């Protein structure tokens, strides 16, 4: 079974995907990490993230980069949304994600274009969302807990800018697949969100 989970930053899609992978005993790929690894490599090599050729050169990143905790930084998230808008960057990372999705036994993948581009024939597709204010509150709390110096207003502005960039790019924009089940986590606890996600996957897989 292939489960595709898409949604904007801090919507809860990562937590939900990990829980789904555990529940169904499936391998999980956080595809955002791939774009973050490209962003981190661009930064490390002092390349220009707005230049497509520079960003493509960084797609050949060292696999060890994927385990670097620095990938979680907000700055890298922002940079990831800049490099991910280049069509050739998306093309460079496409096969790797498709291979993961189509491995024997299935997989759970989360990102922005899983249900639309990477695994259009997924058995279950979820689009996870929450209001920008609530997502900013979650992200702000997370950053504060890590000791990062930032204000709520700054986090909210960043979230809005990232949403705008991810939704308006011409290649693989952040949009729900027409057959995705929508899951709004704005007023749900983590446990309730996971429960609902499992119920939605169950409903979808028995339909096909
Ligand atoms: O999900 P995460 O915040 O780690 O993703 C970082 C950035 O990578 C996103 O803002 C988005 O621009 C990009 N991304 C993407 N397609 C994916 C996953 C992430 O464009 N499948």
From TrEMBL:
Enzyme Commission numbers on file: 2.7.4.25
Keyword annotations: ATP-binding, Cytoplasm, Kinase, Nucleotide-binding, Transferase
GO biological process terms, semicolon-separated: pyrimidine nucleotide metabolic process
Keyword Disulfide bond tagged: no
InterPro entries: Cytidylate_kin, Cytidylate_kinase_dom, P-loop_NTPase
Annotated Cytidylate kinase domain residues: 3-202
Gene Ontology, cellular component aspect: cytoplasm
Reactions this protein catalyses: dCMP + ATP = dCDP + ADP; CMP + ATP = CDP + ADP
Keyword Zinc found: no
Enzyme's top EC category: transferase
Compartments, as annotated in UniProt: Cytoplasm
GO MF assignments: ATP binding; CMP kinase activity; dCMP kinase activity
Binding sites annotated in the UniProt record for ATP: 7-15
Highest taxon of source: Bacteria
Family assignment from sequence similarity: Belongs to the cytidylate kinase family. Type 1 subfamily.
Official protein name in the record: Cytidylate kinase
Native organism taxonomy: Bacteria, Pseudomonadati, Pseudomonadota, Alphaproteobacteria, Sphingomonadales
Encoding gene, per UniProt annotation: cmk
């Amino acid at each position: 079974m292939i489960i595709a989970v898409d949604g904007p930053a801090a919507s809860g899609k990562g937590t939900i995907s990990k829980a789904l992978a555990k529940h169904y005993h499936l391998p999980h790929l956080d595809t955002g990490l791939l774009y973050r690894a490209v962003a981190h490599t661009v930064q490390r090599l002092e390349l220009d993230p707005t230049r497509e050729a520079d960003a493509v050169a960084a797609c050949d990143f060292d696999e060890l980069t994927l385990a670097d905790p620095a990938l979680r930084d907000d700055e890298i998230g922002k940079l990831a949304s800049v490099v991910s808008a280049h069509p050739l960057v998306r093309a460079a990372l496409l096969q790797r994600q498709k291979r993961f999705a189509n491995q024997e036994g299935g997989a759970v993948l989360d990102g922005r274009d899983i249900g639309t581009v990477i695994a259009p024939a997924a058995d279950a597709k979820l689009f996870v969302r929450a209001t920008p204010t609530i997502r900013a509150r979650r992200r702000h709390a997370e950053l504060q807990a890590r000791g990062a110096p930032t204000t709520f207003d700054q986090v909210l502005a960043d979230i809005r800018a990232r949403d705008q960039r991810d939704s308006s790019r011409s290649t693989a924009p952040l949009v729900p697949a027409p057959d995705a089940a929508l899951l709004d986590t704005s007023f749900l606890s983590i446990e309730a969100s996971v429960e609902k996600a499992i119920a939605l996957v169950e409903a979808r897989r028995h339909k096909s």
